[in-house]
Structures are given as structure tokens and as C-alpha cells.
Amino acid sequence: MNLLRTILPLLLCVQTSPIFAAGEWSGNIALEARLFPEETLYQGQEQQNLSLAVSPEYYLDWNDETQRLVFHPFFRYDANDDERTHADMIELYWRGSYGDFEITAGVAKVFWGVAESRHLVDIINQTDFVENIDEEDKLGQPMVNLRFIKDWGTLDFYALPYFRERTFPGKEGRLRSALVVDTDNPAFESGVEERHVDWAVRWSHYIGDWDIGIAHFSGTSREPVLIPVMTGDGLILTPYYQQIDQTSLDLQATKGDWLWKLEAISNRNGIEDYFAAVGGFEYTITGVFNTVTDLGLLLEYHYDDRDDSATTGLEDDLFLAGRWVFNDVASTEILAGIIVDQENATIFGNIEASRRVAERWKIVIEARVFSNIDSSEGLFNLRDDDYLELQAIRYF
């Protein structure tokens, strides 16, 4: 709480500072409450949790909008988990545009991918795993990005001079593994550890109804291998970050009411090379029941040739979902889906609903359910971590 009292006045001072007065401010403050109906599995955990997140954004354009400065910090205070109480600089970069050439330098966020259930090809930024287990939340990545925008496509080059370690829940946090991950003592294959300079290149283009992305990444894996280590305090997990080379393809075809999607990667590393893919479709039914609402039906299949040794657990799994968009002034949306393991019928269910309230408020409800979890699954550690989450978000 002392940290919260310190950071909020600081953010207010920055926002009103004359240095930043010329640009534009936006952002939000979110109050989040989680309820876990099941009894806790591990000592120190609670069945309810409250947290507060502050996410201001600032940008300044000048020189006919060819130059841009972006400032986007983030802070969360969590009542139960010290590891989830954290701050990050998601974006702090300058971007210059010079005709068909752009350069970005600083801390930035880059997104690649087309699939709904998991973004296999999205590798530039590290996952902020204490925020949410869906891997959608990312940490800021130091980089220099050179972009060439040509008639034959967009070519991006990335130099990534510093590695960000993945965040994990602490001992008192929910949605954690049986063994606590020791984030204070990570191990690296590279002798220079987090100072290894990674690089990536990506070509993207559209041809008719097709959007295409082909990329290659070389450097420190964003997904650590968790190694059990015996210490004086007992058995813990040490994250080990290996060096990888990963080539990826993402495709999306728009055919009327159909969106066809594919993400595929070939990962070469020092432990086990593998190929993985996720593909499927989204079909949109417009004007459901003669109303203004739209219903999207989604189906995606996950494949990983490592089978049971796949670290994600998505080696032969089916994702089925429905997205109901109300098209109302409150921007009401509901997404409900399940992921089913084809081998043992393990089910992970998810519901996300959001609605704007008044001009500056938004309510988000999220529910996660883990059902029929086989002991061989990584989700077995979360078998009693079903939860209902309510967020009240105030935009400014």
C-alpha cells in the first residue's frame, strides 16, 4: 500500500507537468476483484483477491505527425500476491517516419498473430504471466525497429538488446504451479544472460483476400524451461532460458463472412526441436434473430509434435467458441469458449463479457473453469483455481 501511495501522486504530477502538456493523455484505472469458489490447494492462498491497476498513456506528435513520442507505464497493486504487485514500462519510445521508412527506438510492444485461442508466432515481447494466464498481457521490450513500407510488402528488422524475464505468481498467489517459481535466480544458456542481443525480421503483406506474415527470430526464448531444484527452503522451480531459432508463418483469409486463420512455427533449440501450429476459422452470422447483433462461431485446432512433452499442454486440442457482439451504444460483447484435450478430455472453459457504462466507465466480467483435469496435464496444478473476476475500469 505504501508503494501505491507513492506512485499515484507521481503519475498525477507527470500528467500535469508542463513538459508533457503539449501532447495527449489517456489511460485507465481498474479495480479488479476475483473470487475462487474452491478451497485453496496451497498454504497462504486466499479464496478472494482485490487489486488495483493504473495504466496512463501519453503521446506527442510533431513535425506534421512524422515524429512521435509515446509514454505508457503500468502499475498494479495486489492485496495477496507480492509478485503480482509490480510496475512496468510497457512503452517509452520515439518513432520517426520518413516516407516509406520508419524507425522506432526505445521500449515498445509488438503484436504478431491471427488466431483467437493462442498466438504462437507472437514472440517479441515477454508474457506478463501474473496479469493473466491467457498470455495476452505483455511486458515492454527494449528495441530498435527499422520498417520499410513498399509496394511488395512491409519489412521489419528488430534489434532487441535486453531480455525481459517472465513473471510468475508468488507463494501466496493463485493460478500457480505446485512448486513456486524462483524468479530471483533464473538460469540462461547465454553467458551474457539477459544482455544477449536478440534479433528478428518479418515480412508482411496482403494479396487479395489474404494477409500474410513470415518471420524469423533468433535469441533468448520467451518461454522458460522450469527445472526443479532442491534448496534449503525445499524444492523450487528455476526458470531456464535457452537460445532458440524460430521461423513462423501467419495467414488470414477473408472470404465473405468467413475468416480462415493459421499460425505455424518451427522452433530449433538445444533441448528438443519442434513444430507447432494452430488453425481454424471464424464464421460471422449477422443480424441474429432479426436483431442488430452479430454472432461469431470460432473453431481452432492446436498441434504440437512434442506430444506429451509440450510445455503448453496444447499438443492435440480443440478450441470452440462463440462471440456475441451486440452492436449497441454500450459496445456490449460476450466471448465464451472451451479448449478440449483430444486425448484425455481435459476441459478449460472461459467466458469474457464487457459493457461500457456511461461515458468513461467499463465493466468486464471474466470466468475461468478447469474441468476433468488429468494428472499428466500442466493444468492439474490449477484444478481448484476456477474463478470469477469483476473489473470496474475508469477511463480518462
Could you describe the 3D structure shown?
With 396 residues, the protein is mainly beta. It has a single domain, classed as Beta Barrel (Porin), CATH 2.40.160. Helix content is 4%, strand content 54%. The chain is built from 1 helix and 21 strands. The strands form 2 sheets. The protein has an 18-stranded antiparallel β-barrel. A 3-stranded mixed sheet has the order 8-12-11, with no helix packed on it. A hairpin with a 5-residue loop joins β18 (333-341) and β19 (347-357). The longest helix has 15 residues, at 2-16. It is globular, with a radius of gyration of 22 Å. The mean pLDDT is 94.
Strand content: over 45%
Alpha-carbon distance between the two ends: 23 Å
Shape: globular
The count of strands amounts to 21
Task: Supply the number of structural domains.
Answer: 1
CATH class category label: Mainly Beta
Radius of gyration: 22 Å
Could you describe the largest sheet, including whether it forms a barrel?
Answer: 18 strands, antiparallel, barrel
